[in-house]
Amino acid sequence: MHVLGHASDETPTRVIFSPSGQAVSKPSGEKVLIEANVDWGGAANPLLVALPPMLDIPVSDDQTVQLLQVFLAEAAGARCGSDSALNRLAEVLVIRMLRSQIEKGTAEPGLLAGLADHKISRAIVAVHENPGQSWSNEQLAQTAGMSLSRFCDVFRRIVGQTPQAYLRGWRMTLARQDLDRGARVGAVALRYGYSSPEALARAFQRQFGMCPSELKRNAGDLAQAS
Fold first, then answer.
1. Cα–Cα distance between 59 and 151 in angstroms, integer?
2. In order of start, what are the domains of the chain with their CATH numbers?
């Protein structure tokens, strides 16, 4: 994520988020005020998969300007707790950019298109808020206020996959993030509705082509190398 501003007075002008890692071009008269890496599970995260290669959002409202001013102050101060504050502020900025894409109503089939649909979004939000619940299609259809057949048909057409496939993918995204942070496999399995650590490991292997222990071992190797 890059925040660009006027080179003369460093007033923020736009926020650019590049999920694909595409290089950001800077027109004459602009400079990079903030450059931050936002990692929400990489390519496994449906939020990032749903985004276009580059988001370029003008800074036009007072709330975003104030948010960026706080971000700049935290980055410049380098005080105790600044890293955590900057992480949260970067996430809020990205969320605001996601909202702008949803409000435009131009999303291709995928998560953003699902969030733009006022009924399907209820089911998606419910899954995101309670990923460990044993969601059935019937429960999700009821949450969306739709009949079961209608819900399954519309969800697949708009989001591009079945409700259960989306639920499995979201759980795996969250599980990988937790494991990356050092969480125990048994705790992660319980948190996201798996009957045992072995059940989580099998699902993890299918999703990522490796077992959780390999992920932890790779993370340990990287830590030692650094």
1. 37
2. 2-104 (no CATH), 112-225 (1.10.10.60)
